[in-house]
Write a structure and sequence with these properties.
205 residues; mainly alpha; 0% strand
């Protein structure tokens, strides 16, 4: 499909794409809080654990759809790291999936609740939780290890691009101080952890 003049212009301006993506991604988290700042008396306890994951489904689906349309419009799928899966390549997904399920079950047994296998009470709940986690992974990796990394890699050494993307990824977690009311110290721990994970994800990328 022939790209429009606007999308073609964006495709050739990596830094503009990075700036647009990061600005819109930040606005997605920050603006709802700024426009509808909750009163301390009516502030509800934030969702945690499985309830939090299930509550994120619709938001992550919207972000995914926007990213898919945007990347298709500017033709950045290959530039952001996507390629055809080689024959038999899907089998390499089995070990991490099994590890995640076993780890989740261990954590569920350590904090028993009225849940069934793997902490889910129904097949529908299990499906929504798994899809939500996959969407979240796609969205974060596309924004930071895809768009942000590629944009900076066009100007600096790939290792520098990995570091920049990891630092930005970590700093983004400070939005939790707004949306979830976290204090500075635990949020900073989360930021540092995300940065460290960003270096690992960057190496994989």
């Amino acid at each position: 499909n022939r790209k429009t003049g606007f999308s073609n212009t964006l495709s050739n301006k990596p830094f503009v794409v990075v700036a647009m993506t990061l600005s819109l991604y930040a606005a997605w988290f920050v603006l709802p809080f700024l426009l509808n700042r909750p009163d301390a008396a009516t502030l509800e306890a934030p969702l945690v654990g499985l309830d939090k994951v299930l509550g994120m489904f619709s938001e992550e689906l919207i972000v995914t759809l926007v990213l898919v349309v945007f990347l298709s419009a500017i033709g950045w799928w290959r530039k952001t790291g996507f390629q055809r899966i080689e024959k038999g390549g899907l089998k390499f997904l089995v070990p991490p999936i099994l590890f995640a399920l076993v780890l989740h079950q261990v954590l569920t047994l350590m904090a028993p609740e009225d849940h069934g296998l793997f902490g889910f009470i129904s097949a529908q709940q299990f499906f929504i939780a798994v899809v939500t986690v996959l969407l979240l992974g796609f969205n974060e990796e596309m924004v930071f290890r895809g768009i942000t990394y590629y944009g900076f890699s066009t100007r600096v050494h790939p290792i520098q691009a990995v570091i920049i993307a990891a630092v930005i990824f970590g700093l983004f977690h400070y939005v939790n101080m707004l949306g979830e009311g976290q204090s500075f110290v635990p949020t900073t721990y989360q930021v540092l952890h995300a940065m460290a994970a960003g270096f690992m994800y960057g190496a994989l990328r």
